[in-house]
Amino acid sequence: MTTKPTATDLQPQRAIDDLKELRALTGNADGAQRVAWTETWAKGRAWLRDKLKQLPVELETDEAGNSWATLRGKSDRAMLLGGHMDSVPNGGWLDGSLNVIGALEVLRHIASQGTPPVTVRLVDWADEEGARFGRSLFGSSAASGFMTPDDVRNLTDKEGIKLVDAVAKFGVNLDKAKDSGKQLKNAAAYVELHIEQGPVLESMNLPLGVVLGTYGVERHAIRFTGQSAHAGSTPMDKRRDAFGAAAKLGLEIREIARRNGGVCTVGSVVTKPGIVTAVVGQCDMTLDQRHLNADSLAKMLQEAKDASQRFAKEENVGVEWNRIWQIHPILFNPELIELCDQAIKETAGVSHRLPSGPLHDAAEVARANVPTIMMFVQSLRGLSHAKEEDTKEEHLAMCVQALDRLAGKTMNWIVEKGK
Ligand SMILES: [Zn+2]
């Protein structure tokens, strides 16, 4: 027998219906089209504002374009529930919007119970994806203080429009964007739900997982320099083949990843002169290494460097490394990890802990020293940033339930911590 939900019940189905409504409003046959700093994005945000207006919350948009809805509690100490309404072009219907709409349903539930013990705030971060200007985590990194306006000012979209001008159209003065940091002043916890965007939970047949943190990344350009020479006249033992060394390294990094429990990827290899009749004189490759543990990440990097020296020697070529980009692993709060684990077990019976390969707004908030936790819900076939992105409806319902439980536990935790 099913009973009709009452006004004070959590209604996961309402969140699923909202997600479908948003998809119809801001998507097309190719997928979601809520690219940040576009009209369709603004339309999605206006839709969210209309939903929020039905609750006893205060609405504001901060200096970086992040939207906030605040439900005042008995204490000013705040639990933040976050997500992002923006999508990549031809994106999926859940990446970002599930976090916001799941949080909206939880906010409705909390508001229906009267004044909460702590203040509860829903945040829709501006431009998580960076799809238009190639700079992701715009709003959250402005708030965390890790964004430098001069680094992003002159980024252009494919029409040649500058970021500084595009954001101004939406009321954001780039030089004031970091003033949004004051929004984190009373933040006592940040909770983010997200689709996994990978195949791990599905392969284990589990609906939900606790995210331990986001991977640290080492990204390098590696150049092997040998001597280009005629493919017919140069004996095999006289060659200085830059590609030979690169190829050996390309295979070795898979062993390095396996040994250390991380992931390593050679994403690009370019040979010169790059013709069929010449030994490769110069080979440029990229290496991306990721690990949740900083020491293991450093070890993977050192092992790859040592291997490159060894292979360079074997092939009688030179090797040089240049760092493209690096970020340290960002670990979520250990106590909130336990609460998330409990909330998942109470909802789904079984939980699993896993790292996040992609970065998320949660990583920026954690960097600003706000205790942070993320929960993942299973992604079908691990697909994301594509119109095929999907999650079973029963799992969507479960993740809203688990988020609601986690929010309840987190509010109690904030109260206890404040004593
Ligand atoms: Zn996302």
Q: How many DSSP H or I helices?
A: 12
Helix share bin: 25-40%
Structural class per helix/strand content?
A: alpha+beta
Order of helices and strands: HEEHEEEHEHHHEHEEHEEEHEEHEHEH
List of distinct ligands in this structure: zinc ion
Oligomeric organization of the protein chains = single chain
Give the strand tally: 16
In words, what does this structure look like?
The protein has 419 residues and is α+β, with helices and mostly antiparallel strands. A hairpin with a 2-residue loop joins β1 and β2. The chain is 37% helix and 21% strand. The mean pLDDT is 96. The strands form three sheets. Strands 3, 4, 5, 6, 7, 8, 14, 15 and 16 form a nine-stranded mixed β-sheet that branches. Zinc ion binds at residues 84, 95-96, 128, 194.
Search tags:
419 residues; alpha+beta; 9-stranded mixed β-sheet; 5-stranded antiparallel β-sheet; 16 strands; binds zinc ion
Task: Describe the SSE topology.
Layout: H1 12-26, E1 27-28, E2 31-32, H2 39-52, E3 58-61, E4 67-71, E5 78-83, H3 97-112, E6 119-124, H4 138-144, H5 149-152, H6 163-168, E7 187-195, H7 200-203, E8 208-214, E9 216-225, H8 242-260, E10 263-265, E11 269-272, E12 282-291, H9 294-315, E13 318-327, E14 330-331, H10 334-348, E15 353-356, H11 361-367, E16 372-377, H12 393-418
Parallel strand pairs: 5-6, 5-7, 7-16, 8-15
Antiparallel strand pairs: 1-2, 3-4, 4-6, 8-14, 8-16, 9-12, 9-13, 10-12, 11-12
Helix pairs in contact: 1-3, 1-12, 3-12, 4-11, 8-9, 10-12
This protein binds zinc ion.
Residues 84, 95-96, 128, 194 line the site of zinc ion (ZN).
